[in-house]
Design brief:
- With about 220 residues, this protein is an alpha/beta fold.
- It has 2 domains: about 5-15 and about 90-215, 3-Layer(aba) Sandwich (Rossmann fold); about 15-85, DNA polymerase, domain 1.
- Helices cover about 45% and strands about 10% of the residues.
- The longest helix has 19 residues, at about 65-85.
- The chain is globular, with a radius of gyration of 17 Å.
Length: about 220
């Protein structure tokens, strides 16, 4: 029986992919790069912004010396968009009821996100779900990003639950691989990637409303 659930945030608990796509697209347009939604979803989902920027620079032959310049523009553009649109990022249908059931059933719950701790806190607060979580780990608190298992291992440590009793809930290939590398079971929602692109390691979950029953049966 599982005793703890570790959730990813973007694309798993909240529908934030359109928000992040808008920010990155605006930054790269200044460099003459037409960032497509398909490329963004394939290469960015589950990756840290730094890793994603290195990837898109490589694909578009942008010199490495431009990285700091690009990333600083990302921060400025992100800050501008966050002030105007961060409140628009909402949880997926079924998320609140799932969290409530898990909490009432005694599960420990954490968020382990590649986004910053501050961003995660803001999103949870805006959606009035902060009280469901026992711990939060942001991408700025770890030295390596998914698919490295560091972030999930840290969340597990903070929850103080042995790995066999933990399950990770993800939406992205890198997240599933991170769970596998952490030697934790993984459930994967089909909110941002195709079923055939998800590693076989994960159990596919078509809808959020199915999460609680699946977790309680593990």
């Amino acid at each position: 029986m599982k005793k703890a659930v570790i959730f990813d945030l973007d694309g798993t608990l909240v529908n934030s992919i359109p928000f992040h796509f808008k920010i990155h697209k605006a930054v790269f347009e200044e460099y003459g790069v037409n960032l497509t939604k398909q490329f963004f979803e394939e290469k960015c989902n589950g990756a840290s912004p730094r890793d994603f920027y290195k990837t898109i620079m490589k694909y578009n032959n942008i010199p490495d010396r431009e990285f700091d310049n690009l990333f600083n523009k990302n921060l400025k553009t992100r800050d501008k968009h966050q002030k105007k649109h961060l409140h628009e990022i909402k949880v997926f249908p079924g998320v609140k009821s799932t969290l409530k059931k898990l909490k009432n059933s005694g599960y420990k719950i954490a968020v382990a996100s590649s986004s910053s701790h501050k961003y995660v806190n803001t999103i949870l607060k805006n959606n009035n779900i902060t009280h469901y979580f026992d711990h939060i780990v942001g991408g700025d608190e770890v030295t390596k990003t998914k698919p490295d298992p560091h972030i999930f291992l840290l969340a597990r440590k903070e929850l103080n639950i042995p790995k066999p009793y933990c399950v990770v809930v993800e939406d992205a290939k890198n997240g599933v691989l991170a769970a596998k590398n952490a030697k934790m079971d993984c459930l994967c929602l089909l909110t941002s990637e195709r079923k055939e692109d998800i590693p076989k390691y994960a159990t596919i979950v078509p809808k959020h409303s199915q999460l609680f029953n699946l977790i309680s049966e593990m």
